[in-house]
Write a structure and sequence with these properties.
alpha/beta, 205 residues, five-stranded mixed β-sheet
């Protein structure tokens, strides 16, 4: 599939106009959008490495992957974008999968490595969201509960699912608050258990 240079005016956001394909569910906070614009402005050549993907919907080019980049490019005053166009006979189930999979992050960052081997100012400038209470690994206490669990061959983990990024930000703010209130607790799990225990004792009291 070749890459074409297409005028932004000929591209259209996915608003649900493709039969069987819901509108794109992706949203972006204003501050993150500004970072995206800065990223494209600073390194526009990266658009050649990650093109916009559009679908030929009976002559209308509907963006399947790259809605936020398209919006950022328009606000930056750019006129064209590198685009790969999916043919009309692309199954709608494939279009649905592409739409969601493009925004799924399968990997995770090692924040200890980021904090120690990379410049934090650069990371923030590039749009990396670091944990609110992230500290370099050499400043963190050793011998935590999690380390003991790993040495004993077991570790239980849970995945938190947030409704939106605002809810996620609020959660990290609360974690930082709890950390300041309970400096003796070494891990997130210890802090949460302490808070929940206090609530239970208060209710039972």
């Amino acid at each position: 599939m070749k890459t074409e240079t297409i005028n932004l005016s000929k591209l259209h956001l996915n608003t649900g106009q493709v039969q069987g394909l819901p509108k794109n569910p992706r949203f972006i906070r204003s501050e993150r959008f500004e970072l995206l614009k800065k990223s494209i402005h600073d390194d526009p050549e990266m658009m050649q490495l990650r093109e916009i993907i559009a679908y030929d919907n009976h002559g209308e080019l509907v963006i399947i992957m790259g809605n936020m980049r398209y919006r950022a490019m328009k606000e930056l005053g750019m006129k064209t974008a590198p685009v790969k166009v999916l043919p009309e006979d692309t199954p709608v189930e494939k279009l649905k999968a592409y739409t969601i999979k493009d925004n799924v992050s399968f990997g995770q960052d090692d924040f200890d490595l980021l904090a120690n081997d990379w410049d934090v100012a650069d990371l923030e400038d590039w749009g990396v969201e670091l944990p609110v209470d992230q500290e370099p690994a050499d400043e963190q206490d050793e011998g935590t509960e999690d380390d003991d669990q790993e040495e004993n061959g077991y570790k239980i983990s849970y995945e938190l699912v947030f409704d939106d990024e605002q809810e996620q930000d609020k959660f990290f703010e609360l974690l930082k608050y709890v950390k300041d209130k309970l400096p003796e607790a070494e891990t997130i799990s210890q802090r949460l258990i302490a808070v929940l225990t206090q609530w239970k004792e208060r209710d039972n009291g």
